Amino acid sequence: MRTGDSFEVYLLPGEYFVGDARYRIRTVLGSCVSITLWHPRLRIGAMSHFLLSEREPGIVGEHGAGLSGRYGRDAMALMVAQLQERGVRLRECEAKIFGGGTMFPSIEASQHEAIGHRNGVAAEKLLAEYGIPVVSESLFGTGHRHILFDVGTGDVWVRQSEAADTGGA
C-alpha cells in the first residue's frame, strides 16, 4: 500500500522483506519472532516474521523450494543474501528483535520451553553468529505485538497487547 511518498508492506507469518528508505514494514507477532536489520548510512533494511527457529532435520523447504521464511535460520539467510546483493556490509547493520510471546499462559506453563521462547533465543544466537549487534529487543512476556519498522529512519514501534488466556477450561 502506498502512503504519500512511502510504501507499506504487511508481513504474514513466514514472510520477509528487504527494502530501502521508501518502505515501512508492519506485522503482528504472537510466538513468532521478527528480526529487523538496518544499515544506517545506506538506509536499507530487512524484516522477517518466522514461526519456528529452524526446520526439523531432513525436512526440505516448502514444495522442495529450498530455504523458507517460516524458519528463523532460513529467513536470516534469505535476508542476508538480499542485503549483500545490495552492497550492505552486515557488520555495519543494527538489529532489533521482537516477539516470542506466550499466547496461552495456562497451557504453555506446562511445556518445558515454549515455542516463542525458543524463537527468541534462536534469533539472539543467529545475530551473534553473523556478528550483527542487537541494539534493541522486546521479547517474551504474554500476548501479541504490533510491529512497525520505518526503513528510512531505522525506528521500530511496538505495541504489546496482553493475552486473553482461554486455555485450561
TrEMBL record:
Protein name: Probable chemoreceptor glutamine deamidase CheD
One protein family per Pfam: CheD
Keyword entries, A-Z: Chemotaxis, Hydrolase
Ranges that cross the membrane: none
Entries under InterPro entries matching the protein: CheD-like_sf, Chemorcpt_Glu_NH3ase_CheD, Cytotoxic_necrot_fac-like_cat
EC class name: hydrolase
Summary of the function given for this chain in its UniProt record: Probably deamidates glutamine residues to glutamate on methyl-accepting chemotaxis receptors (MCPs), playing an important role in chemotaxis.
GO function term, MF aspect, one: protein-glutamine glutaminase activity
Catalytic activity from the UniProt record: L-glutaminyl-[protein] + H2O = L-glutamyl-[protein] + NH4(+)
EC number, UniProt record: 3.5.1.44
GO terms for biological process, alphabetical: chemotaxis
Family: Belongs to the CheD family.
